[in-house]
Amino acid sequence: MLKVAKFGGSSLSCSEQFAKVKEIVAADDSRKVIVVSAPGKRFSGDHKVTDLLYLCHAHLQYGVSYETVFEIIEGRFCEIASGCNLEIDLDEEFAKIKENMRKDMSIDYLVSRGEYLNAKLMAEYLGYEFVDSSQWLFFNFDGKINIEKTEKALNEIFALHDKIVLPGFYGCGSDGSVKVFSRGGSDISGSLAAAALNADAYENWTDVPGILMADPRIVDNPRVISEVTFSELRELSYMGADVLHQETVFPVRKKNIPLYIKDTNDYTAPGTLIMEDFPPDPSEDGFKFITGISGKKNYTIISLNKSGISDSIGYIKRVLDIVERFNINVEHIPCSIDSFSIVIAPGTQQERIPLLIGEISKECEPDSIKVTPDISIIAVVGRRMAYRPGVSGRLFKALGDNNINIRVIEQGADEINIMVGVENHDFEKAIRVLYHSFT
Ligand code: ASP
Asked: What does the DSSP assignment read for 200-238?
């Protein structure tokens, strides 16, 4: 039995958190591969070490002294080392990093040192072997992972040392230098390690009890989702539920490895299990078929009206070709007989909408074109909703009973997701109404 356990920054923010991690690892002998983030925040208002490293780099670039910021970073690692009674020579490590900072060092190298040093500390603390991620995680020149080389390298290392600590977040670029993922990327490192070693489970340890059914800033004490499929999780996280880095699921999903989200601060709690599918549970009552609710604000809807659209071939394509020319990403296209809408996600692309409208009006001559900003899209996700009559009826009734006007409705073909668009000012209320009517 082999488990790959990845611990996030808040689970490794200080020596007290390190002690919890040690207890968790000791509680299960199959936790043989440990992946670590850099130390995160210890309290609100505190700094993540990775943020401080980015700040050091900015200081270096502008020729401002970075010493004070670097001293804070040193202090964070020294506290962990002394609190855990470690013998590692941190001064030597800091000197090496500072020497590289005086040379032509890359930003990726510098910001990866949080994970590198934390892994060194954790390896000594657990009595595991430290393995630099430049030695097993390989990127291609296009930034994608060289899976073959990565799997081979990690298996060879694991054959020599069967208890290892790996720094998350970085690997070796195609030119041999350190290359990092985007922020939060240690989740991907853990998933790649689990997939490379064909682990029995990938555990992602964090500071929340699991994936929540709704945003706790909107719904008081939302329930923890105990089981969620990879597809449901994709829908929920795309729409804003934020527990794992978006790319985490791909490596483990491909190998059918179960992924657990667990709470370092309450390690016996069940957390959330994510798998490809779950057998149906006959005891499930019909009211509990929603897995989760998430959503995002600030969409814009462009609605076009032209009589006879449904009979004219190629009209929608012509409009979408123009949208593509403006490099605007369309998220949904709800249609009716003589009209259709284009739902555009929040972000800077919305700045190009006025010019886009002008171009569509000129080239496609719609009867009318209307822009509605400030729309929120809410996704109600649940694999158990599929092929079950009455779900959308209940959903719309709940919103209607609470005076919430629905501007857009969409359902994916696999029926695990119903999306409704409401005005921004109804966003939080709609989520609360839906949560309470389905739990
Ligand atoms: N330390 C990196 C960050 O803060 C990577 C990670 O924690 O996953 O983004």
From this structure: SEEEEEESSSS-BSS-TTTSSSPPBPSEEEHHHHHHHHH
